[in-house]
Amino acid sequence: RREEMARSTQLIDNEVFRAYATYTAIVLLKMMLMSLVTAYFRMTRKAFANPEDTASFGKGESAKKYLRTDPDVERVRRGHLNDLENIVPFVGIGLLYALSGPELSTALLHFRIFTGARILHTFAYLIPLPQPGRGLSWAVGYSVTFSMAYKVLKTVWLL
């Protein structure tokens, strides 16, 4: 048991893993924040998806007018969905990458660029900024994840 605990603390002593943990926590918190932004837009626009969510605005027919879609709510939801489609792969591939033994400077470059691209993507989606800003920020983040996946496969290829 003591050896097992010693091995688990060795991972946290790894600077690349600590960098991965830091930037993963940042992008996951950013993604979680999108839920709060969605709730804020639903409340301020009075646009709800479920009948029980309209209870504080009336009963019966008077509450039905709040069961609707709103372009601002849908924009936030699409941004959140895009986070799910991009941050989840980063978390998995980034972990494998961190464990594949990259140089700290290269790993930091990957993690920082991805994090910056996702934050920029969120602002580009919510403000909205004119294209190609959002598309470029998505492409940069996607490329970083692809680059890490390539490095992992190149390092551990066993076919």
UniProtKB/TrEMBL annotation:
GO CC, any one term: endoplasmic reticulum membrane
GO MF term list: glutathione transferase activity
Primary localization class, coarse: endoplasmic reticulum
Listed EC numbers: 2.5.1.18
A Pfam family assignment: MAPEG
Tree of life domain: Eukaryota
Spans through the membrane: 20-41
Coiled coil spans: none
InterPro entries: MAPEG-like_dom_sf, Membr-assoc_MAPEG, MGST1-like
Topology relative to the membrane: Multi-pass membrane protein
Catalytic reactions on record: RX + glutathione = an S-substituted glutathione + a halide anion + H(+)
Keywords, sorted A to Z: Acetylation, Endoplasmic reticulum, Membrane, Mitochondrion, Mitochondrion outer membrane, Transferase, Transmembrane, Transmembrane helix
Subcellular location: Endoplasmic reticulum membrane; Mitochondrion outer membrane
Keyword Acetylation among UniProt keywords: yes
UniProt key word Cell cycle: no
Assembly information from the UniProt record: Homotrimer; The trimer binds only one molecule of glutathione.
Function: Conjugation of reduced glutathione to a wide number of exogenous and endogenous hydrophobic electrophiles.
Family according to the record: Belongs to the MAPEG family.
Protein name in the entry: Microsomal glutathione S-transferase 1
